[in-house]
């Protein structure tokens, strides 16, 4: 069985912590080695993601963009959850890109200018078109073979996009900008040119 290790695994910290957590959760329960390894891999991925997020939000706190970063991140997750898309090739790359996107962009928006509502509306239409054309975004390593699942994910991504647009229209201009920037970042991750040139995903998406 080919199971890829995720993240840093510096000094085996993720490995040992994930194993300890899983052993506590499954105390007294019989589990096959294959299932144990899959569960451990999932816990390692969770630990790795929490570590990366803690770095990004620590930088956001230092740069005084914590709330702005949160708005962009929420906008990103609203689409990403259903649209999937490319991942960075390494944890270091992920942290770097995430910091630039979730801290750098909000900082730039706060320090420069805000897009007017009409531009945000055009951006929203562009986001919806991108989702209609490319969602869900998969790679060679991650294929969704079920057409039913593809359609379901596309519908959910579009609905989430519509909901974000409605919410952003009720928010002040700054927060509306931040939410839609997050949406736009998520759509960029499913455009084929970005997936082919730089993205990958580490785990197979099942039907």
SSE map:
Blueprint: H1 13-25, H2 33-62, H3 66-83, H4 91-111, H5 117-134, H6 147-170, H7 173-188, H8 192-197
Pfam families: AgrB
InterPro entries: AgrB (IPR006741)
Transmembrane segments: 55-79, 91-109, 115-135, 156-172, 178-195
Structure, briefly:
Keywords: Cell membrane, Hydrolase, Membrane, Protease, Quorum sensing, Transmembrane, Transmembrane helix. One of its GO terms (molecular function) is peptidase activity. Helices cover 71% and strands 0% of the residues.
Q: How big a fraction of the residues is strand? A: under 5%
Helix content: over 70%
In quaternary terms, these chains amount to single chain
Give the uncertain stretches in residue-range form: 1-11, 198-207
SSE-based structural type: mainly alpha
- Dominant shape: globular
| Total strand segments | 0
GO molecular function, one term: peptidase activity
InterPro entries: AgrB
Transmembrane segments: 55-79, 91-109, 115-135, 156-172, 178-195
Keywords: Cell membrane, Hydrolase, Membrane, Protease, Quorum sensing, Transmembrane, Transmembrane helix
């Amino acid at each position: 069985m080919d199971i890829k290790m995720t993240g840093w695994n510096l000094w085996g910290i993720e490995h040992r912590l994930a194993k300890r957590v899983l052993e506590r959760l499954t105390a007294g329960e019989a589990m096959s080695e294959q299932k144990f390894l899959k569960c451990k891999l999932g816990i390692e991925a969770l630990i790795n993601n929490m570590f990366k997020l803690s770095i990004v939000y620590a930088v956001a706190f230092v740069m005084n963009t914590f709330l702005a970063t949160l708005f962009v991140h929420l906008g990103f997750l609203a689409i990403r959850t259903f649209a999937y898309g490319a991942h960075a090739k390494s944890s270091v790359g992920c942290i770097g890109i995430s910091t630039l996107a979730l801290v750098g962009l909000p900082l730039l928006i706060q320090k420069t200018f805000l897009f007017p509502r009409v531009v945000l509306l055009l951006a929203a239409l562009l986001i919806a078109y991108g989702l209609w054309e490319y969602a869900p975004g998969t790679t060679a390593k991650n294929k969704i073979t079920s057409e039913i699942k593809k359609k379901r994910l596309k519908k959910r991504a579009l609905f989430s996009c519509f909901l974000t647009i409605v919410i952003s229209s009720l928010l002040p201009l700054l927060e509306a900008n931040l939410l839609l920037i997050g949406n736009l970042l998520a759509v960029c991750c499913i455009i084929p040119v970005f997936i082919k040139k730089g993205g990958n995903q580490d785990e197979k998406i099942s039907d």
